[in-house]
Sequence to fold (255 residues):
Amino acid sequence: MTRPSRLGLRDPTAASASPPAFYALRPGAWRDYVTLLHPPYTIWHLSYVVMGAALAPTVHYDRLSASLLAFFLALGLGAHALDELNGRPLQTHIPDRVLRGIAIGGIAGAAGLGGLGVALVSPWLLAFVAFGAFIAPAYNLEWFHGRLHSDLWFAAAWGAFPFLTSYWVNAEHLGPAAGVGAVAVLLVSLVQRVLSKRVREIRRRARVIVGHVTDVSGETHVIDRAWVIATDESALMLLSVALALLSIAMLVARM
Fold:
């Protein structure tokens, strides 16, 4: 039997030394701004925008491009900047005033693109714009005592909402495919939330992880922080790439 020299014992300060996310770069300078984007997750949720357009009866590539830019501004920049303002979960050194500027500029830019869509596409688009402008601060700043900061609201706001918005912008109505697709991306977003919550808690809050596993052959494996989160983080990365590729494939099939 292989006997480990240590059973996953970690220094009590290990949690603070561990990166706050598997995609987080070393703190400081331009790296903080890359980390702020949550690159795998931003790509993941922008994939829903592409999927919504690809499932619509007609794909308007100018509208899809505008939708991608709007959600990048609102989610990739605005919502993530607000999230970092609310407790510094990514441990960046970006000044508060800069984060506020990014948040306001991102959400305002997205709303401006939405306003252009209202003028050029349909006044009904205003409902989507209003919801987006509301949910970004409401979710990330935990308004209403955090009632909107839940797994279901996460999946609705960053899963179903981008998908439905993109579908509607291209189709100007919501058909059966939109409903089924929205449920699908809602469920996938819940999977993301389940995996990422556990990883996040371990990376940012767990101080000591101790243990070992002995398999049927009698070999013993150490349980440490890396062992506990490795599978979940690999699944998250693979899903972000898979969904991006799937969305591209769906769009290519429409060309």
Observations:
- The radius of gyration is 20 Å.
- The longest strand covers residues 212-214.
- The CA atoms of residues 154 and 189 lie 8 Å apart.
